[in-house]
Amino acid sequence: MKPVTVYDIAREANVSVATVSRVINNTAPVKKSTRDRIMELITKHQFQPNALARSLFKKETGMIGVILPDITNPFFPEVLAGLDQEARSKGYTFFLCDTVSTNGDSAEQYVRESQYLSILMEKQVDGIVMIGGRINLAKLSKELAYEVVEASKRVPLLLINGNIPGEGLTRVYADEREGAELATQHLIDLGHRDIAFVGGYKHMSNTMQRIQGFVKTMEKNGLSTRKEWVRNGGFSVDSGKAFMNELLKLPELPTAIFCANDLVAIGVMKAAHKAGLSVPQDLSLIGFDDIPYASNSIPELTSISLKCYDVGRSAAELLHQMITKNKVNKSTKLRPELIVRESTAPPRNKK
C-alpha cells in the first residue's frame, strides 16, 4: 500500500498543505473544526510526517554535517561523543563525512572535503562542523579557503580546533600552544634539560603551535632546542617508532621526549622498549590529546588533555545557537590540562 503523505491529508481534509503543517507543528492557530478534521485523518491513516516533510514545513532538516579527516584516529571519536550528546539533546542527528585518503594523499583528502561540502548543502543540512583537514593547514590556498567561506554564507558553519585567518568564521578550540607549554614545563620541572620534540607535520598549524610552545618554554627556562632532536613527519604509532629509531642512531639521546600526540608517544614507547630502554626510568615521555589509550598503556601515559568531549559539546551548543539565529562569540577557547601519569619522572641523575 502506498504510504499516506501530507499532501493526501491536505487533499482529503480540503485544506492547504500549509494548514496541515500548522496543525502538525503547532506553529499557528487553526480553527478548531479544521484542526479536529485534520487530526481525525492523521489518526485514521496512522500518518507520521517524515523528515523531508518536516523540512519542507519548518525549513529545517534536523541534520548537522560533520567533516573530519580520519575517524580511526581516537581523537576524533572523543570530540564526536561530546558533539553527539549535545546535538541529540537538541533534536539533531548528523551526517558523518570521513575524508581519509586511501593512499595518504592530502590532495585527495581536500577533494573529498570539497565534495562533502557540496553534498551537505544539497542535503540542506541545518549546519556544518569541520574538524581537521584544510582548516589545520599553516598556509591555506585561496581556493581551499574560498570554498569554506562560501559554504558559511549559505549554512551555519563552525570550525573545531582549526581556523581560516581573517575570515571571521566561528570556531571552538583548545589552546594547543598553551598545552605545549604545560607539557614542556612539566618535563623541565622534573629536572629534564635534554628534551626532544617528535611528531606532527610542519605544514599543519597544530604542529607549529605545539613546536612554538615547546621552543618558547625551553627558552624561557634558559634551555636551547637541539635541531637534531626535533623530528616531524607523522601523527601515527608507526611514525613514533620511526622517530625513536632515528634518535637512537644519534651520539646522544635526550632524557625526555615531548610527542605531538598520544599515538606518536605510544610508538616511541614501543621502540624504546625494544631498544632496551625503560620508561620513565631511562626516558620520560609525554603525549598530547589524552585519548583513551593514554590511560591504558603500560606505563600509563602522561598527556595534555585538549578537553575533546567538552570541545564537542561546546561546538554543538554554539552551532545550535547559530542555526536558531542567536548571536554567538566568533571564538571560544578551552584551556588544556596536564594529566600526570606514569610515563614521566625525574632523570636518573636527578632522583
Description:
The structure is a single chain. This protein has helices spanning 6-13, 17-25, 32-44, 51-58, 75-89, 106-122, 142-154, 176-189, 205-220, 237-248, 262-274, 308-323, and strands at residues 63-68, 93-98, 127-131, 157-160, 170-174, 195-198, 230-231, 256-259, 284-286, 303-305, 331-334, 337-339. It is an alpha/beta fold and 351 residues long. It has three domains: 6-58, Orthogonal Bundle (434 Repressor (Amino-terminal Domain)), CATH 1.10.260; 63-174 and 307-335, Rossmann fold (3-Layer(aba) Sandwich), CATH 3.40.50.2300; 176-306 and 338-350, Response regulator (Rossmann fold, 3-Layer(aba) Sandwich). The strands form three sheets. It has a six-stranded parallel beta sheet with strand order 2-1-3-4-5-11, sandwiched between helices. Strands 7-6-8-9 form a four-stranded parallel beta sheet, sandwiched between helices. Strands 10-12 form a two-stranded antiparallel ribbon. Strand 3 (127-131), helix 7 and strand 4 (157-160) form a beta-alpha-beta unit. Helix 5 (75-89) packs across helix 12 (308-323) and helix 10 (237-248) packs across helix 11. The longest helix is centred in the first third of the chain and has 17 residues, at 106-122. The chain is elongated and about 90 Å long. It starts with 5 loop residues before the first helix and ends in a 12-residue tail after the last strand. The model has no long low-confidence stretch (mean pLDDT 92).
